[in-house]
Amino acid sequence: MANQPMLKFVTVGRDMPEKRDAEARARDFQEIYAEYAEQKAEEQAGRCSQCGVPYCQSHCPLHNNIPDWLKLTAEGRLEEAYEVSQATNTFPEICGRICPQDRLCEGNCVIEQSGHGTVTIGAVEKYITDTAWEKGWVKPASPAQERPESVGIIGAGPGGLAAADMLRRAGVQVTVYDRYDRAGGLLTYGIPGFKLEKEVVVRRNTQLEEGGVTFRLNCEVGTDISFDQIREEHDAVIIATGVYKSRDLPGPGAGADGIVRAIDFLTASNRAVNFGDNVAEFASGELNAHGKRVVVIGGGDTAMDCVRTSIRQGAESVKCLYRRDRQNMPGSQREVANAEEEGVQFEWLTAPKGFKGDPVNAVVVQKMRLGQPDATGRQSPEIIEGSDYDEPADLVIKALGFEPEELPKLWGVDGLEVTRWGTVKAEFGSGATSLPGVYAVGDIVRGASLVVWAIRDGRDCASAVLEQLNGAAASVAAE
């Protein structure tokens, strides 16, 4: 038993990688956590209890074989740990950084429930894959045999890229169409560098290109190429556009200058700060928080990205308004704690009633209380009459979530069925839509969701597309 590498949770405490000092990290866009050293990664992986029913695995959307790669890490068998990790996850180094582990794998860890502190699954996952890149274990697709069939994928976000990777490894010819000038979707332009350094995404995009995936960037479907053209050019099409239409904010003065969308604010910052692009709206101050009193409206992870980006841009003050309390907010509690450490003030149980000035100089805020539970079981916020007050603001960022664009109308497509929410109607598991040979994955099917779910959908859909192509090939061979 002396050499037993596992079950150390009783004698070894939970220890995250060192977090950079809040004052220092609030001045740059580098990731806030240091890497584990090999010994520390082995030690922390060895805390896993190797339970018979691993709840961490069942609560992971990808059903990653977490206990096995933790055991391999604890034994110092890192290359094998990487092979097990990437067998179910196309981008483990990305999930290790941005998944809300506190709500998924780590939040369901058995030793956490028993009071010993969860295994640091995300940090170990990040360490395994970063080491794999460093050692050259991560290889581009090199299919044993090329296939003649081709698949067009609309959208270069995590769902589309996960499908592209799997299809290329099977020898299928893959073309990815995207409206932006860089692949990655929200991984590239929506998530700030302090959560996901852009080199991590660029590295994966390069690997996909080296593996034979063709990217057609700056390509707007419906303008630069029609949806029908894409269907004609390929044997199957996967729609993986994500959801980019921002929910709007009602109330008097909502159209004033200085009230901006979260996606515009984050994209401008990522372009200017992380890629060095010349962004006119950033340089002019329109999408730049420097020296301003910033108010962010919303309580999800996008709102957390906005408040923490504002701090780093040198805002005079940053406040976040959320209509429920801390316990009922949808964003990661870990992110809220990071934001508070960096100087963000949260105004719980508050909502905007209107705005003053043009350009904006104040948000009219109304206080709320929690009433009866709504259909989801969460308590509905109710307005406290007569509690209004003015919150000074030079920049107001709307982070209220995203909705799907009207794709059938936007692309001029007949027969593509959508739900009453505007998402594409697709078969569970395969992603098959109402149009033959057309599939859909990720947020355009689910609504705004997690990156890990988009990866899962992309992988499942790639398997379904391969079945369709194999079936078609078998029919031709039988004729």
Description:
With 479 residues, this protein is an alpha/beta fold. It has three domains: 128 residues, Alpha-helical ferredoxin (Fumarate Reductase Iron-sulfur Protein, Chain B, domain 2), CATH 1.10.1060; 169 residues, FAD/NAD(P)-binding domain (3-Layer(bba) Sandwich); 152 residues, FAD/NAD(P)-binding domain (3-Layer(bba) Sandwich), CATH 3.50.50. 36% of the residues lie in helices and 15% in strands. The chain contains 19 helices and 16 strands. The chain has a five-stranded parallel beta sheet, with helices on both faces. A five-stranded parallel beta sheet has the order 6-14-7-8-9. Strands 10, 11, 12 and 13 form a four-stranded antiparallel beta sheet that branches.
Which segments are poorly predicted (pLDDT under 50) over 5 or more consecutive residues? none
- Number of helices, counting only DSSP H or I runs of 4 residues or more: 19
- Largest sheet, spatial ordering of strands: 3-2-1-4-16
**What proportion of the residues is helical, as a percent range?**
25-40%
Strand percentage, roughly? 15-25%
Q: Determine Rg (CA atoms, Å).
A: 23 Å
The total domain count is 3
Q: So what's the overall shape? A: globular
Largest sheet: 5 strands, parallel
How does the helix and strand content classify structurally?
alpha/beta
Extended strand count:
16
What's the CATH topology label of the largest domain? Answer: FAD/NAD(P)-binding domain
- State the CATH architecture of the largest domain: 3-Layer(bba) Sandwich
**CATH-assigned homologous superfamily of the largest domain:** FAD/NAD(P)-binding domain
Which CATH C-level class of the largest domain is it? Alpha Beta
Mean pLDDT: 94
